Amino acid sequence: MAAALLDTRDLSMHFGGVKAVRNVNFTLAEGELRCLIGPNGAGKSTFFKMLTGQLEPTRGQVLFRGQDISRAHAHQIARLGIGIKTQVPSVFDGLSVRDNIWLAASRLNSKERARRLVDEMLERIGLVDAAERLVGQLAHGQRQWVELGLVLSTDPELILLDEPAAGMTHEEVLKTAALVREINRSKALIVVEHDMQFIRMIAKQVTVFNQGSVLVEDTVDNIMRNPQVRDIYLGKQAAA
Amino acid sequence: MNGRSLNILGLVLVSVTGLAFMLLTPQLAELDTVLDLTVYMIMAVLALSLALIWGFGGILCFGQSAFFGLGAYTYAIAMFNIGESTLPFLLAIILPAAFAALLGYFMFYGRISDVYLGVITLTVTLILFNSVNSTAGPEFHIGTARLGGFNGIPGIPPLNWPFNKTAAIDLEGMFYLATGSLLATYFGLRLLLASQFGRIIVGIRENERRAELLGYDPRAYKLATFTIGGALAGFAGCLFANWGNFVSPTIFGLAQSAQIIIWVIVGGRGTLIGPVIGCIGIQWLSAALGANQPSGGSDLWSKIFANAPLILGVILIAFVLLVPKGLVPTLGDIGLSLVRRRRAREQRGFEPQQAE
Amino acid sequence: MDLVALLAIQVLYAVASLALISVGLAIIFGMMRVINLAHGEFLMLGGYAAIVATSHGISIWVAMLVVAPIVVGLIGIIVERAIIRFLYGRMIDTMLATWGLSLFLVGLTTAIFGNTTVGISAPLGSIQIGAYRTSAYTLFVIAIAIAVLGAIFAVMRWTRLGLIARGTMQNADMAAALGVNPPRVYAVTFGVGAALSGLAGAVLAPVSGVFPTIGVAYVAKSFITVIGGGAAILSGTVSASALFGTINQIATFVTTPVFGEVALLAAAIVLIRLLPQGITGRFFRRGL
Does the reported pTM lie above 0.90? Predict the structure, then answer.
């Protein structure tokens, strides 16, 4: 087995009496692409927040290439090479698209190089024409792309994507899936998603969260045939 | 005209007006007026210090007068003890900066929220005011300098050329120094804000969490910004102590702190020229109101109109409720929408049939 | 031994006056998350209300305990309707607007009453503790503080009003769905906070005198107390007052009143550094 890029041990997060995440043992290999699914409130976003230092775990450890990062600050973790695209786009609303990307690119690169990388990234996320517009004035879908551009520009080793395809048209979903596969040629990813079609396009291995714990981990095809998984999703639909 | 050329036009405009003002005023105006204008320039430097940390850094500092007062007092006390102004001048910048750094460390690394930051900085100012205010007795002195309590410290020796005690600055020289300092501060801050550091602090103001997730430590950047703001305010305090050759605890007072906030609110957060305009405008207004006092009657209305805190209070409430962005950004918005509307009309003019 | 008793009374008095001047602010902040920078001026207005009332022949007790809170409470309601209600959810703007209000009130009282100190003599004489004398009024202030805190506890804990208030602060939408009128609750809460400030200002007026800028002397201490106390209104106010009042008084006793204030600030800053969670803490899940 290849060396693990990310490893969590008994990772738990309690809010008062609510156990949002409990005893999660999760391993991701170098270069792997993993999908995370589970009903709302299963603890996926909380899990991401612990991986990125936005929440300090109540118990347990997060190891990134063997280094314990469970008590590190968010900016330290980012510097180690974990980037995140949050569910609701978190961008610099008052700045132009170009300035947004520049802020991400300039941490690691010289001024000249950063400027060139920004132009490349604008091309890649398809926002060349909107480069000088304020991000706050863009449509939701475009803000998603800006955030993705931010994350990619810091050149992380591991990228966390929280519902990248949410609210997208079918074409955009296809485009996103292609991009995710392209990113995966050089980076590891963990993708939270509900859209099973999207998951089939990108992933081999899927982890299912339910009520804060890992329910099952398997290939996409097996997961889709798994009656337990179907139950929690159907149960959710019946309740909704 | 795009944003970039507009920006350059603004810079040219500011430099030309600023230089012309600096060179022509002493030739054309009475000495009294020059003296009044000098203090406006000094206060505008103070306004810029808050424009940086609040308007661009997003740090809600209600106690900018603490650093201003510390600068003034440091200069006065050091001057009485040393007698030559090079070191006192430097101390008047370094000490407030160090105090800002210490206070900032507690606040930013303690992860205090914005609102508490405002309250804490305000409280620090008030405590300084109360402390210095009650040091009237002869037992309160630092070296040969008596603190003087509520009486203040009179007769502060003026600045001299570095290391040349005999070449002390005169009133006209003070005007040149103050105006030159304001221009230097303005352009210095423009450079700072255009640098990577400046762009990062604006990013942190926009979205602290995102900046953090990109690998920037907001605490360190805020601390640096706050310290620079403290140094600038201390510098302004040093100039102020020179201007009147006098400091008193009111320099730390609530009224002084409120003024600085009002300058920035009125002029507009997120701009540099706005707070300068706000500062000069409000000071001019206060002076005009104060000048009314002796001639006005003793009835309530004339008392109210001669009452600067009352008018300033109304201005502050009115701006928060009605013009929260401040004058310069609001005028900018209005200008922009006028241009857009005209452009839209022109476009419609070219193809009038289509609409019908 | 007498000295110890005297010091104990002084410390108790420092704690009581701190709690008294802070509790109005704590209620407005804790329940509405509005930081009222005109708090010091509410205290000042309480003092003036008492003085004006006594000069019109009203008994000083009625003036302090009835007139002052009613007058300042009404002013508070007017302020809430005219300014604060437009700014809910914008904490920083509320602070700025109430700061403007603070300047306005200082200016207005200066125009009306002039920039001089007005005093009312403390009722009650002095009492003898061994070799020392102390003012009986000190004990009265302590008693008032205890009564005020007790009353707040009782109202919040056992009355329908307290329940409605707590419910609205926790979840305004839910309370509205149950037939409560949140705007009215906010206005009343702000009025009650202002009234308590008025009461405190009036009760302390015989000790300190009253002048337009006296609010400045109060405001720093009360903010430190409320911040130090954190989320819970009553237990926060009481614990922070006890801590800071004791530090202040002992430092004052050992050195000078000025140093007492500096010690208070230093204690507050250290506390904030040590317990940032306890201070900025969770506003939402709180007791009384």
Answer: no
